[in-house]
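Bit of a strange request maybe. I'm writing a small parser for structure token strings and I need a real example to test against, not something I typed by hand. Could someone generate the tokens for this chain?
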Amino acid sequence: MQLLVFSKMFQRLPLDEFGKLVAEMGFEGVDLTVRPGGYIPPQRVEEELPRAIEALKDRGLSVPMITTSITSVEDPYAEATFRTASECGVRYLKLGYWRYEGFGRLRTQIEKARKRLKEIQVLSRRYGVTAAIHIHSGMYLTAEPAIVAEILEGFDPDLVGAYIDPGHMVVEGGLAGWLMGLDVLSDKIRMVAVKDFAWFKEGGLWRAKVVPLGEGLVPWRRVFEILNRIGFEGPVSLHSEYEDLTLTELIEQTRRDLKYVKDILKTLG
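Reply from user aminoacidic:
Good idea to test on real output. This should exercise your parser:
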């Protein structure tokens, strides 16, 4: 498993400064944002992605995956992003999201998503990459692993696979839903996101919030044992999505989270 840092929360830093920091922290690579508001805007992917990857390589970092907002081959710059990623040696692309439209719409939405993914699979095959849909709790079509499995039924997972996020999985299925989710998606998992959640009551309402690894609901040791058991060897993207921290605090918490993951992986051999 290759340990990457998700670049989203560090976009306040110039890319070169970010790369220097990530290398010093001890990460192996970067999950680079190539989407509106990301490090690389989609309309400049052909010019800026190769330069960004070279700059990160100069720091000893790889870029095996990028995070995009693509949900259709008709999205502006979709094919340019797939093609440029492939030319730069990026193997994995996270796709964007479909919002769940509400009760009574699920079956229609699943079919629409599958149609779009069939077209995306053509791009994946053409450029030799893996695109994946991310599990995200809340009002998203991909909130439930069983729905993700249904959406992906019949697809080649090396072309269109699952990007699991055990943090979001425990939010939707904290007792055994996360475990069943890993089970039903085990042959489709191609990317893994790492963050932890806990529930807090605020103003009379319960909210799920990101907390440091090991302080939330995710049984991370068990998750990595299962990933090791099924032979997962893809990218593991550490998401330091701590909204209320200063940059200094964010850096220090990311260091602690990385150590937490590395300590678990050492025990797995």
